[in-house]
Amino acid sequence: MLLLLIPYVLWYLLYRKKSEPTMQMSDTNAYRYAPKSLRQRLVWLPDVLRMATFVLVVLCLARPQTHNSWGKRTTEGIDIMLAMDVSTSMLAQDLKPNRIEAAKSVATEFISGRPDDNIGLTIFAGEAFTQCPMTTDHTSLLNLLQNVRTDIAARGLIEDGTAIGMGLANAVSRLKDSKTKSKVVILLTDGSNNMGDISPLTAAQIAKSLNIRVYTIAVGTKGVAPYPMQVGGTIQYVNVKADVDTQTLSQIAATADGHFYRATSTAELKQIYRDIDKLEKTKMDVKKFSKHYEAYQPFALVAFLTLLLEILLRITWFRRIP
pTM higher than 0.85, yes or no? Predict the structure, then answer.
């Protein structure tokens, strides 16, 4: 766009003066050496200001940005790993719309309410893996949380089942090197341990030895719950009995100095996360990487000032009649 300045400058130098009004006299030789006033010497200034305004506007449209940078600040927070059951039983609809979506919704609200905490996510069914390591970049964490589906077991990506011990051990492994005073695992499941190479109580003892508190949440009603099953080409809902092992979950929490909760509704699940939200906090250093920083503001400000100055000069000091 800066190339548009070339024809404007050519027009100004070659044709502008020809179009200006002149006063014809029989002889102007006597005025050849007349002294020029300051206004005459600066008559070009408004046009230069207009060109400068155009250049600055083009620079703003080019969206200048500073280089990447690191920032460091001290904040208060704790290290938290969320261990979430994603077995197919989490599709039961005793919580609305179902257990897994209710758990994700409440976890999202919990994460959003703790912007300074280092939070990660482990998911497990018959196997366990880290969906997101601990981070203060909660935008990325929430995106990964929303991508959690129970069909990873149904599609055979991981084995179906409930490996509570493996899920807890995976979360604990992410916290073992943490330097903060408060390290917490929030374990949510709707079943009983029936898979994995590590028992839940062994994982709890490991957490205890590393000063990691474990809060366990048993999600689901105490009776039966509607569960979607594919029959032919349609989905049929059947009532299945809740199979959550509250005793083991309670023992895990007791061993690892945490608390055991039972959530039979979405409202209860929200209240549980509110209770956990009252955990103590500790100071920690956070490094923040800024990939882009918009830098057009100074150019926009100068463009506005040059345009304003040009307009003021044209209607005052450089005003022409006609």
Answer: no
